[in-house]
């Protein structure tokens, strides 16, 4: 889970393979990047909004 899109971009660069994106509800403002590194599937999650706080992190967690 990343608070900033820049950190999510950094995390996704290190991963090997991209999975197709998930369908997303319009009310869900999270961005999900599905990737793989060796045999491990990874989900990188971040918010599109410009406001970052503990509430933002809780919002991500509740929509997983």
TrEMBL record:
The chain crosses the membrane at residues 42-61. Keywords: Membrane, Transmembrane, Transmembrane helix. InterPro entries: Nucleoside_phosphorylase_sf. One of its GO terms (molecular function) is catalytic activity. GO terms for biological process: nucleoside metabolic process. This is Uncharacterized protein. The lineage of its organism: Eukaryota, Fungi, Dikarya, Ascomycota, Pezizomycotina.
